[in-house]
Design a protein that fits this description.
This protein is of the alpha+beta class. The chain has a domain of 56 residues. Helix content is 37%, strand content 9%. A two-stranded antiparallel sheet has the order 1-2. Helix 1 packs across helix 2. The longest helix has 16 residues. 2% of the residues are buried.
């Protein structure tokens, strides 16, 4: 029996709550440009209370499955990496 291994699709998901540099700067006493120059960040996505990393990962998996054009039942292996676990 021949086995093939490969990446069939990738996915991502960002929470819907967005905070701009202007919002962060107003609370931090710096300018939005100061934040951008030092971090390269334009905006941040925040998960609402009750939405865990695993919820975000589930959305990313759906995106990857759509990208690959397959159903979840066809998967043998799913790889997830995060530095922000649920707990």
């Amino acid at each position: 029996m021949r086995t093939c291994t490969g990446i069939l699709g990738t996915g991502a998901y960002l929470p819907l709550i967005i905070r701009t540099n202007a919002e962060v700067a107003a609370r931090s006493g710096v300018s939005p440009e100061w934040i951008l120059e030092r971090t390269g960040v334009l905006r941040r996505h925040y998960a609402p209370p009750g939405q865990a990393t695993s919820d975000l990962a589930a959305q990313a998996v759906r995106s990857a499955l759509d990208c690959a054009g397959i159903d979840a039942g066809q998967l043998d292996l799913l790889v997830l990496a995060t530095s922000t676990p649920d707990e």
